[in-house]
Amino acid sequence: MKIHGTRTQGSPRRLALFLEEKGLAIPFVPVDLRAGEHRTPAFLAKNPLGLVPVLELDDGTCLAETTTIARYLEDLFPEPPFLGRDPLERARLDMWARHVEFGFYTAVRAWFRHGSPLARALEPEQIPAWAALARRQAEDALRVLDAQLAREAFVAGPRFSWADITLVTSLEGTAAAGFAIPDDCANVQRWFASTSERPSVVATRPL
Ligand SMILES: N[C@@H](CCC(=O)N[C@@H](CS)C(=O)NCC(=O)O)C(=O)O
Questions:
Q1: SS3 of 62, please?
Q2: Other beta carbons less than 10 A from residue 154's beta carbon
Q3: Which domains does the chain show, CATH number per domain?
Q4: Residues near ligand 1 with C-beta < 6 Å?
Q5: Strand order in 62-64's β-sheet?
Q6: Shortest-distance Cα residue to atom 2 of ligand 1
Q7: Mind listing the pLDDT tens digit for each residue in 132-184?
Q8: How far does residue 51's CA lie from ligand 1's centre (Å)?
Q9: Pick from 170, 160, 163, 162: which is nearest to 194 by CA?
């Protein structure tokens, strides 16, 4: 199997980091988003939404959506687990992963796409007011996570999980464009300082 998407960028990086943590190697096929490679007929045949990553199996079957791909890989390679060991842990991890993805990540992605000159190739009709609102939403989502990280070592509890992977990659991915963890989120800042040093995070960071 192979993963379409650039290993150090955005959502494909979530999978690269997950694979590093699991000690697995699956080849990545880089996709040049700025050149619009994800909108070509060949790519749209793999994912009609035109988004990376896509996992392509040896028989040509294609799976899109990063969390869906992570679940499939976790089913194939369960150890060590990042999506939960039993029904309650799976539900708790899923809840926090959704808080990160639909709360923080969705907002910070909208801020980036509508507010950063770096994203103009992806979002030709940038709306500055949308960026301003999304930034406030992203910061508010981080405040919810900050309260959780006051109680727990990691986003979903005592162990590093898929929720942490989504949070660290989206924070690092938008820092270069100017998104900063608010000053009143000391717990997120502490978590970020230690998580940024994990070997999997370092190994998948863009040079
Ligand atoms: N819901 C999708 C989102 C994936 C996504 O946003 N991918 C971005 C790169 S990080 C992309 O392909 N962007 C291209 C575009 O928006 O045109 C997932 O979780 O896989």
A1: strand
A2: 19
A3: 2-76 (3.40.30.10), 87-200 (1.20.1050.10)
A4: 10-11, 33, 38, 50-52, 65-66, 122
A5: 28-29, 2-4, 54-56, 62-64
A6: 65
A7: 999 999 999 999 999 999 999 999 999 999 999 999 999 999 998 999 999 99
A8: 4
A9: 160
Report the residue count for the chain: 207
Best of 9, 29, 52 for a ligand 1 pocket test (most atoms within 8 Å of beta carbon):
52
What residue type is assigned to position 133 of the chain?
Answer: L
CB-facing half-sphere around the CA of 153: CA atoms within 13 A: 6
pTM of the prediction? Answer: 0.96
- Residue 102 token pair: 């639909």
What is d(CA 168, CA 103) in angstroms, rounded to the nearest whole number?
14
Determine the residue type at 25.
A
